[in-house]
Design a protein that fits this description.
alpha+beta, two-stranded antiparallel ribbon, 18% helix, 66 residues, 12% strand, single chain
């Protein structure tokens, strides 16, 4: 099995959303939209925020879907 193997999963072409610049300044942190645990993003972050665990799991689910 080499790099040219047909089972290689190609990227979907959709770039992952970039996290906000810099770490959160402190509490309150935004809740993960899946498990309600605190994330590393400030509460003022717009959009669907995911904790690192849920973000990793979501990336695994969508990496080769299709």
């Amino acid at each position: 099995m080499g790099v040219d193997d047909d089972t290689y999963c190609e990227p979907s072409g959709r770039p992952a959303p970039a996290p906000p610049a810099g770490p959160a300044e402190g509490p309150p942190y935004a809740e993960c939209v899946l498990c309600r645990e605190p994330t590393e993003y400030p509460a003022s972050t717009r959009g669907a925020t995911l904790c690192p665990v849920c973000a990793w799991q979501e990336a695994g689910r969508t990496a080769c879907s299709g």
